[in-house]
């Protein structure tokens, strides 16, 4: 009887030790599934206890950032519904909104803003705002979404240019017009 009880205790102890390893593995798999756009796997991992705000060891990106960067709108919605942090910073200071703006994903940008994303958050390496990134990349629809959130139009990146300045420099005339209409100055 003692041997059976000892065996049960050992199995329970071993199971609890492996549970910690499983959590780390779930978090890594969550980031991978998000990047790949695998909605079912993301849902399964979240239901299994993956940390919704886990960060990549390489660049500090969260699942929401990856969904935003890669345009996985359904995953972004799921993560937001489950409470993902919208203003968490990656290692370079970027946020999910910044990534959505740079990559031209206006629907995701709108979702993030509706959940309280900071429209004025800046990348730490160059002080560029989401509006600046969208203007530089000529993402007209994203610029419209960001302007509706009333961003600070005076933010300058380390190159000395505002969003209007970078739009003029890159000759993105429609964005120049939108920014000037919103009251932007160089």
Labels describing this entry:
Serine Threonine Protein Phosphatase 5, Tetratricopeptide repeat, 186 residues, 2 domains, mainly alpha, elongated, 59% helix, single chain
In short:
This protein is mainly alpha-helical and 186 residues long. It has helices at residues 2-36, 39-47, 63-70, 73-81, 96-103, 106-114, 130-136, 140-148, 163-169, 173-181. Helix 7 packs antiparallel against helix 8 and helix 8 packs parallel to helix 10.
Radius of gyration: 21 Å
What is the string of helix and strand elements?
Answer: HHHHHHHHHH
Count helical runs: 10
Write out the CATH superfamily name of the largest domain. Answer: Ankyrin repeat-containing domain
CATH topology of the largest domain: Serine Threonine Protein Phosphatase 5, Tetratricopeptide repeat
Largest sheet: none
The total strand number stands at 0
Whole-number total of structural domains: 2
Contiguous low-pLDDT stretches (5 residues minimum) are 4-21
Q: Roughly what is the average pLDDT, rounded to an integer?
A: 90
Architecture of the largest domain, CATH level 2? Alpha Horseshoe
Given helix and strand content, the structural type is mainly alpha
Question: What is the end-to-end distance?
Answer: 82 Å
Taken from the alpha-carbon principal axes, the silhouette is elongated
